[in-house]
Design goal:
Chain A: Keywords: Cell membrane, Membrane, Transmembrane, Transmembrane helix, Transport. Chain A: This is ABC transporter permease subunit. The complex is a heterotetramer of chains A (272), B (522), C (607) and D (320). Chain B has three domains: 153 residues, Periplasmic binding protein-like II (D-Maltodextrin-Binding Protein, domain 2); 104 residues, Dipeptide-binding Protein, Domain 1 (Dipeptide-binding Protein, domain 1); 207 residues, Dipeptide-binding Protein, Domain 3 (Dipeptide-binding Protein, domain 3), CATH 3.10.105.10. Chain B is an alpha+beta fold and 522 residues long. In chain C, 52% of the residues are buried. The two termini of chain C are 35 Å apart. In chain C, helix 8 packs across helix 22. Chain C folds into three domains: 255 residues, 3-Layer(aba) Sandwich (Rossmann fold), CATH 3.40.50; 201 residues, Rossmann fold (3-Layer(aba) Sandwich); 74 residues, no CATH class. Chain C has 23 helices and 22 strands. By secondary structure, chain C is α/β, with parallel strands linked by helices. Chain D has a single domain, classed as MetI-like fold (Orthogonal Bundle), CATH 1.10.3720.10. The longest helix of chain D has 36 residues. Chain D is an all-alpha fold and 320 residues long. Classes of the chains: A mainly alpha (272), B alpha+beta (522), C alpha/beta (607), D mainly alpha (320). Chains in contact: A-B, A-C, A-D, B-D, C-D.
Chain lengths: 272, 522, 607, 320
């Protein structure tokens, strides 16, 4: 019964997100490996850190592999992995944050204490320990990173929701006897989508950063999978030769995250 | 015992091996000067940094230990044991060894070296609480006893003509009797420990009472560790440090272009793939054969090492070793044969265990990825599983059917064979069992005749090459970077800044840096 | 008093053909004010009259050369005290504002910085413009505080804005405006947010300072009765265009423009109600029965009563189909009572029954039928309607939740019931006007098919004309649907026009409970009388009369007082109190007209 | 009087809530480290980890006891104020951690001194000139800086300023600092790198807080009094946004202790973050525990401080 209006609501929200940009990155993520001129693991040149050439549009990497091909594959995994992480973390954070604001009392206290505890351990360390304990498979990375970034989202959403749950329309819904799920999703959440979107953008940046920094410490995605941060990291030595192998992935990270954030910010502008 | 002639032979060998290295170490007949402070950046450093010789396990530990401690013997540039704290070594049956200590050697705290110190230092390796890295080697000593104030008698389980090499390991350095606290170092070495902060730095100042009157030129040395490659090189380039260990092959060109020296030391260090022969596909010798043929050794040499390596032939002795078997046919890259072998045994349509690798094993991830790529070209699906560096050696290494390892140059061929290839060896990576090999090993340890021993070693290499599950694609050339004002560095078969002993040989030429920079080719 | 008809010097303020435009987001600029012109002579007080959205505040701010974010002065000329406001560069504007022209905002609670002591803010204009040294400014501020009859003028400046009442803050704001002795003062609806009783104090204060300081004024308001007290001349604005201009007398007594007439009509009290003949003596079960309700906070004392009481033994029976009014000033506990009935405010003792069944204190514990049949319409429609949900969705949810058909026709019917076009179903609350929002709010309550609707100050935030229309709607609904209403207000006009019975609350006590018919007949509780007198009237000398009456009483004390001690809760402010009032709880007796009065004085005394 | 009592109660509640989090972290860290593969015996022995050597060492370090027993032993020690000794170096972990903590606090402090004013300034000006080109430029720039991995920023900085220009040392070794000059030279690059990381978020949050405040009636009132923008910000806005700003700052600063592994590693700076990474690698559980406790306590201290500031700034007005 209640599913239909739910679906309708979400369908009506989604087009308002700057869809074209997200679509572009998702397409690139899915098609990247197809578009790659070489296999990402293939050594194609005896020269490492080769500069831009007609053969290798972005040169070669530290082993002499084609940077463009690796970049196309790395973009895919970065986008998909970080998107999954962000969606998971923010879904949990949003829902629990609003619930805590709504229920107050013990629920709020316990949730907040738990989240504070998680957030107080540096993210890189938590990820490191998780990878050490459970291996660096994609599900472990996504789950660990989601858990790491959920408290931040929770904190933000709880603060945002605190002012909203005191508004009379939430009270009206409660007086009507609405279930918590309905109140969270239909009454409270639609009123904070702008700031939540901005928060989602920031979490995405953090996820990309954490993935990069994990690769700095030698954990992260399993080869032959790679992400933009690892590409930057593994070719870091190329910096001294000005190699595109290190510049290209770093630029891609910047374009990806900044573009997404500006798009999400503009969404906030429309709603407010 | 060890003849002069041996040493001369090895000296000749050194010249041959170090030919390439001369390029980076101009043989200028300058007189070493005393004085100067030198900063050295090594690679790994952590909380586990130690001043306990028994626990030393990382290059930084060995370098630090070598500044403060001496062993009974020391291994020279060709890994030949030379007298150090022991003036004389005697053995009739290679089973009972008598060491005559150098008289009048003083510890840093002023105490004089006696046989009690040596007995204590050697015996403690057997205590599990000491967590000694050489407990296995120490177990070969059935008894260690003092024979007067300057005599130590060691009785082995079985004869071993190479036993002095074992005591040349840094871990067997001599400490003061009864030492339990290692917050500072009380050794007999050329430097005293002025500061030691695990994971941060060690500061050494020259020991004026050092027993050896020649050598040891610099006044003080600070040893730090920078694990990040780029940061370490930057520190050298910016002048923050004078010497760095482990130059990345990709940065050799940059360092030389900027007037820095890069010392190339051919070593027996290798990164290997071990295919276990007791479990998984490695039980089938043809699988092992196929993988050996699948290693594109030239490509690994070019892509991973940028040529700073020598070809490996799936046996552990490097070409520079005096016992290297030149007659052994080289395993070649032959994907067609590999495919044929694999196909024949049905491995191509079979799920295979993953290649286990880790940043802990030097370049193993890159080599694994290259192997994976070659495998995929012949339709073989090999997964790569990278493990975290911490815990790799105890938790992953040798635990999986296909796993990478990384072995530093060992002190002698005997040590290599007995520690990593004998059936009972603790680090027999491929779990290879060969009774013939074990026989030969026992035989070689008693064989005083050099030519006969060489023949035995030749056969042992052949056995490993043909039978063991170890793929050794390359031997790695150790690269160390230094500022031109640093003199005295010479290639060493042990690699790693003269087998970690550089502090005893380097000297500072304050004017050289400027001159060298001017004359450096652009 | 008025000086019209005499030859006047050139005007101090001259506005010619003023054009103000605004834009929402990145939308197109739309005119807010279009071609407004007027003059104000020196020492004159001009009233700018209009509904919200008429542009009156924008015009007032334009006099200071200020336009709110998104708005701008697009054209016209403004001259104030010799300055050409539209031409001044920012630095000059800064030295003009606060020194030559000062502003008194509608909501003093929001306009004072909550983080700074009040004195710092009051003397700030003087220091900013280097008009006088700090010490002199403080002395002048204290002088102004005294002038405006603020309590403890010497120390009140050390306090923070949230510690004072709205009326006090409004007077402090006047002091802040006057500290530099400006030539022009703008009053922007300064008493709209205040209770009628407080409004009197504030208006009197304004009159006093104007007499003493002699400034030129612009008074922005929608309340014609206030205009009658304060202004010499008036300009009536609608949709950014001047409708009518004239002297106050002219506008009030003989309005020419239809819009002014409508305003005037809305301001005139009228009875909309055909009183229901309901009594609580009959056999009919009350739809709602509040019995001896005690609400407090701070824990329960040894006597079983809360340490701080908000409501003390309040009883209130509401009959089916009846409209019950609750009146009192802010802080009297009327909202608390509503919240307790609605199930969002726990109580200490007493009880509430609904349709004969006890109501659980917590909404969660109430039955679905009780929740459905007892609906709350809250004061601020902005807060009650989810801004992210369309009107149709809001109504649809109530219908589906209660298992009713939720088709377009039903939603159309509900919107029609509150006299809104069904096309509004697709709009979102931020796109609606205040009146429309309150109607949707009503429709939402009605969608549940309630037996009793609690109305908490539903007209307080609305303009007069709109509020009158809402009251009309209420009465129509009452006739059509036969449901009972509990109507809470501080506006005696509204109360009179719609209610059957009235409960008067003071400091958490029900001091009088009277049928509306008895309201016109003496005797009454002294507080009821005071409320009666406080309703502004449209004659110019009303304020003077009230003040002279009030001067017989004593200085009022803050309304919210602890009722722990014995004695009458109103004793401190009562002009007719006697000795016993301080010590004994007053008895409740019935007046001849049928009012239940809680007072020590007798019927004769009070008549 | 009652106000003070209420204040103290509120403060106690805040502190109590923090302690709950601290206990949670303590327990969680202990059991998470317990599931890590391998222990300190494995780590110490490394390649020499033969089964008999490991089990002997394990026994001597009480590691063969069940995890719950070890937990009880550890908690008992903790309750007696004994944080334990490092399993690797046998030094008291408290001394080891506090030595590193001082370094970290120094770096964090200097970074804060530099980054907080910059972030507040950027956020405030962006709020004042919101939706202008300047605002967009600041937003773009801060996002760019935040999104680029810090190891790249740090390495690039070192390469340019140390290697190419020879202006600054490549390492920030504490032992080399002998003067203000060398201090500034050593710290400038690590501090800038860290500032890049935190300024972005801080300035964005500051902007949001400021926009909120600037939209209030009392700011409009101040404008109408003829106050200048600087006067409005300093005199009116700042006292009101102290609490939310402090919250923003607290969140950013808590990152500066534990989140700086990479900067510590690139600049060879002996801080506490790398100590914890090391101790995890070495499976030196007492040391891991005390580092986790310090990070948690620092975070809770900062956020609780922010809460207290919020409480006091509202209390000050309520109590007057």
């Amino acid at each position: 019964m209640t599913v239909a209006p739910f679906a309708r609501r979400w369908v009506s929200v989604i087009p308002r997100i700057p869809g074209s940009l997200i679509l572009f990155w998702l397409l690139l993520a899915l098609l990247g490996p197809v578009l790659a001129p070489f296999a990402p693991g293939e050594v194609v040149s005896r020269t490492v850190f080769a500069p831009i050439s007609a053969h290798h549009l972005l040169g070669t990497d530290y082993l002499g592999r084609d940077v463009l091909s690796r970049l196309l594959c790395g973009t895919g995994s970065t986008v998909l992995l970080c998107a999954a992480t962000t969606v998971l973390a923010c879904t949990g954070g949003v829902f629990l944050g609003i619930i805590a604001a709504l229920k107050q009392g013990l629920t709020d206290t316990l949730l907040s204490r738990f989240m504070d505890g998680v957030i107080s351990i540096p993210s890189l360390l938590s990820a490191l320990v998780a990878v050490a304990a459970f291996g660096s498979s994609v599900p472990v990375l996504v789950l660990a990173m989601s858990l790491i970034y959920m408290p931040g989202s929770y904190r933000t959403c709880r603060m945002l929701a605190l002012s909203i749950v005191r508004r009379d329309f939430v009270l009206a819904a409660q007086m009507r006897g609405e279930k918590s799920g309905y109140i969270v999703l239909r009454e409270v959440l639609p009123n904070m989508t702008g700031p939540v979107m901005a928060d989602v953008g920031l979490r995405f940046i953090y996820a990309v950063r954490l993935l990069s920094n994990l690769s700095f410490l030698g954990v992260g995605l399993q080869p032959p999978l790679t992400d933009l941060g690892s590409l930057t990291r593994e070719n870091l030595l190329g910096l001294v030769y000005g190699a595109p192998a290190v510049i290209a992935p770093a630029l891609t990270i910047a374009v990806l995250t900044v573009g997404l954030n500006l798009a999400l910010d503009s969404y906030k502008g429309k709603a407010g | 015992m060890l003849s002069r002639r041996d040493m001369m032979k090895q000296g000749a060998l050194l010249v041959a091996a170090g030919g390439g290295a001369l390029r980076s170490c101009p043989a200028r007949a300058a007189q070493p000067l005393r004085g100067g402070h030198v900063r050295v950046a090594s690679t790994t450093g952590s909380l586990s940094d130690t001043l306990d010789p028994a626990r030393e396990s990382m290059a930084t530990d060995y370098m630090r230990g070598a500044m403060f401690y001496d062993g009974l013997v020391t291994l020279d540039a060709t890994l030949v044991p030379q007298p150090a704290l022991a003036e004389r070594i005697e053995s009739d049956d290679f089973r009972t060894w008598t060491f005559h200590l150098r008289p009048g050697v003083q510890f840093h705290d002023g105490a004089t070296l006696t046989s009690a110190d040596v007995v204590y230092s050697l015996r403690r390796h057997l205590d599990p609480l000491v967590a000694s890295q050489v407990r296995f080697q120490a177990r070969a000593m059935r008894s260690v006893r003092a024979d007067g104030p300057l005599g130590v008698v060691i009785e082995l389980d079985a004869p071993n003509i190479s036993f002095p090499s074992v005591l040349g390991l840094n871990n067997f350095a001599i400490i003061r009797d009864g030492t339990k606290n290692f917050e500072t170092a009380n050794g007999t070495g050329p430097f005293r420990c002025a500061a030691f902060q695990p994971g941060i730095r060690s500061l050494a100042v020259r020991n004026p009472d050092f027993w050896k009157t020649d050598g040891v030129w610099i006044d003080s040395l600070e040893l730090i560790s920078i694990s990040d490659d780029m940061a370490r090189h930057n520190a050298l380039l910016s002048g923050d440090v004078d010497i760095i260990a482990e130059v990345n092959p990709r940065l050799v060109a940059l360092l030389r272009q900027r007037g820095m020296g890069v010392m190339e030391s051919p070593t027996g260090t290798y990164t290997d793939l071990a295919i276990r022969q007791d479990i998984g596909p490695g039980k089938n010798p043809e699988f092992v054969q196929a993988i050996k043929h699948l290693f594109n050794r030239d490509q690994v040499a070019d892509s991973v090492w940028l040529g700073f390596c020598r070809l490996g032939n799936d046996q552990p002795l490097p070409p520079e070793d005096r016992y290297y078997n030149h007659d052994l046919p080289q395993t070649v890259f032959d994907p067609d044969r590999a495919k044929w072998l694999l196909n024949k045994n049905g491995f191509l349509n079979q799920e295979l265990p993953p290649l286990i690798c880790s940043p802990a094993a030097n370049a193993s991830v890159d080599i694994a990825v290259l192997l994976q790529n070659e495998a995929s070209r012949i339709g073989m699906k090999l997964d790569v599983r990278r493990m975290p560096a911490d815990g790799y050696w105890s938790q992953s290494w040798m635990h999986f059917p296909l796993g990478f390892g990384n072995v530093n140059a060992r002190g002698s061929a005997d040590m290599t064979f007995s520690l990593a290839f004998a059936s009972a060896a603790p680090w027999n990576e491929s779990h290879w069992r060969s009774s013939r090999f074990d026989e030969l090993l026992a035989l070689s340890r008693r064989e005083a005749d050099e030519a006969k021993r060489k023949a035995i070693y030749y056969e042992m290499q052949t056995l490993i090459h043909d039978g063991s599950g170890l793929c050794i694609p390359n031997f790695i050339t150790s690269l160390d970077g230094y500022h031109q004002r640093i003199r005295g560095l010479r290639p060493h078969l042990g690699g790693h800044l003269m087998g970690n002993n550089f502090s005893r040989f380097i000297w500072v030429d304050e004017n050289a840096g400027a001159r060298e920079t001017e004359s450096a080719p652009a | 008093m008025a000086r019209h008809g005499i030859m006047q010097p050139p005007p101090l303020i001259s506005v010619q053909n003023l054009q103000l435009t605004g834009r929402r987001g990145r939308g197109l600029e739309t005119p807010i004010v279009d071609g407004v012109s007027f003059d104000v002579a020196e020492k004159e007080m001009l009233a700018l009259i209009g509904e919200s959205g008429s542009g009156k505040t924008s015009v007032a701010l334009a006099l200071m050369g200020y336009a709110r974010r998104g708005c701008r002065i697009a054209g016209g000329k403004i001259r104030v005290a010799g300055y050409d406001v539209t031409e001044m560069p920012p630095a000059e504007l800064r030295s003009f504002r606060g020194k030559t022209i000062a502003y008194i905002a509608q909501n003093a609670g929001a306009a004072f910085n909550p983080a700074l002591p009040l004195m710092d803010q009051v003397i700030e204009p003087a220091l900013l413009h280097h008009v006088m040294p700090r010490q002199v400014a403080i002395e002048r501020a204290i002088f102004l505080f005294e002038l405006m009859a603020l309590p403890s003028p010497g120390t009140i400046g050390a306090r923070y804005s949230h510690e004072l009442s709205g009326g006090q803050l409004q007077r402090l704001m006047a002091a802040m405006a006057l500290i530099t002795g400006p030539e022009v003062v703008i009053f922007d609806e300064p008493t709209t947010a205040l209770d009628v009783t407080t409004q009197i104090e504030v208006l009197e204060a304004f009159r006093t300072v104007r007499r003493e300081e002699g400034f030129t004024g612009v008074y922005v308001t929608h309340d014609l009765a206030v205009v009658a007290q304060m202004a010499d001349r008036a300009v009536v604005l609608k949709n950014g265009v001047v409708q009518e201009e004239g002297t106050t007398e002219q506008i009030l007594s003989a309005p020419r423009h239809a819009y002014t007439q409508a305003l005037l009509a809305a301001n005139t009290p009228q009875v909309r109600n055909a009183p229901t003949q309901a009594t609580d003596s009959g056999t009919v079960v009350p739809v709602l029965d509040v019995r001896d309700l005690v609400v407090g906070y701070g824990g329960t004392g040894p006597d079983g009563r809360p340490r701080h009481t908000i409501l003390s033994d309040v009883s209130l029976p509401v009959m089916p189909g009846e409209t019950m009014g609750i009146i009192g000033e802010s802080g009297c506990g009327k909202s608390t009572l509503i919240r307790a009935i609605a199930g969002i405010q726990p109580w200490t003792s007493g009880g509430i029954t609904f349709e004969g069944e006890a109501l659980a204190p917590r909404i969660e514990a109430r039955s679905a039928a009780q929740r459905r049949h007892l609906q709350l319409v809250a004061q601020n429609a902005d807060l009650v309607l989810n801004p992210a949900m369309s009107v149709g969705d809001t109504l649809r949810r109530v219908l589906t939740f209660n298992g009713d058909a939720a088709n377009g026709a039903e939603i159309g019917r509900l919107l029609d019931m509150v006299r809104l076009p069904s096309a509004l179903a697709d709009r979102f609350p931020p796109e609606l006007s205040g009146g429309q929002k309150q109607r949707v709010n009503l429709a939402r309550a009605l969608a549940a098919r309630p037996r009793l609707v609690l109305c908490d100050e539903i007209t307080a935030a609305l303009d007069t004309v709109v509020a009158a229309a809402i009251l009309d709607l209420m009465m129509e609904l009452k006739r059509e649907l036969g449901i009972a209403w509990l109507f809470v207000t501080h506006d005696l006009h509204a109360l009179r026009s719609v209610c059957d019975r009235v409960a008067v609350l003071y400091a958490g006590h029900r001091v009088e409970f009277t049928p509306i018919s008895a309201l016109e007949e003496a005797p009454h509780h002294p507080y009821t009388r005071r409320l009666e007198n406080s309703v502004p009237e449209m004659r110019a000398d009303w304020l003077t009369d009230v003040i002279s009456l009030r001067d017989q009483g004593s200085e009022p004390v803050p309304a919210l007082s602890s009722s722990r001690g014995a004695g009458c809760c109103y004793a401190a402010r009562c002009p007719v109190r006697i000795a016993i009032c301080e010590v004994a709880t007053p008895p409740v007796w019935r007046s001849p007209a049928g009012a239940l009065i809680s007072c020590h004085l007798t019927s004769q005394d009070l008549s | 009087m009652t106000m003070n009592a209420a204040l103290i109660r509120a403060l106690l509640r805040l502190v109590g809530a923090s302690l709950v989090s601290l206990v949670f972290v303590t327990v969680a860290v202990f059991f998470i480290t317990a599931v890590l593969p391998g222990d300190v015996a494995d780590a110490l022995l490394g390649q020499a980890a033969t089964p008999d050597a490991v089990s002997a060492l394990r026994h001597s370090l009480n590691l063969d006891k069940p995890v719950l027993v070890r937990f009880v032993i550890w908690v008992t020690g903790l309750l007696h104020g004994d944080f334990g000794v490092s399993l690797v170096s046998h030094r008291p972990v408290l001394a080891m951690a506090s030595e590193r903590l001082i370094h970290s606090l120094l770096l964090a402090g200097v970074t804060a001194l530099f980054a907080v004013p910059v972030a507040l300034l950027l956020g405030t000006t962006a709020a004042i000139f919101r939706n202008t080109l300047f605002d967009r430029a600041v937003s773009l720039l801060t996002l760019c800086i935040v999104s680029v991995p810090e190891f790249l920023v740090a390495t690039l900085a070192v390469f340019i300023f140390s290697v190419q220009l020879h202006l600054l040392p490549a390492l920030a070794s504490i032992s080399d600092i002998h003067s203000i000059g060398s201090f500034l030279a050593s710290f400038s690059m690590p501090v800038t790198t860290l500032a890049c990381v935190i300024v972005g978020q801080m300035s964005r949050m500051t902007r949001a807080v400021m926009i909120d405040a600037l939209g209030s009636s009392w700011v409009e009132m101040a404008v109408l009094k003829g106050a200048s923008p600087a006067h409005i910000i300093l005199r009116h806005v700042i006292p009101n946004v102290i609490a939310p700003l402090f919250n923003v700052i607290a969140l950013s600063l808590s990152y500066l202790l534990g989140g700086v592994v990479i900067v510590e590693s690139v600049f060879h700076y002996p801080g506490i973050a790398s100590l914890m990474v090391d101790s995890v690698a070495a499976r030196d559980i007492p040391l891991v525990q005390i580092c986790a406790l310090i990070f948690c306590a620092a975070y809770l201290f900062l956020t609780t401080l922010a809460d207290i500031v919020a409480l006091l700034s509202s209390q000050r007005r309520h109590a007057a």
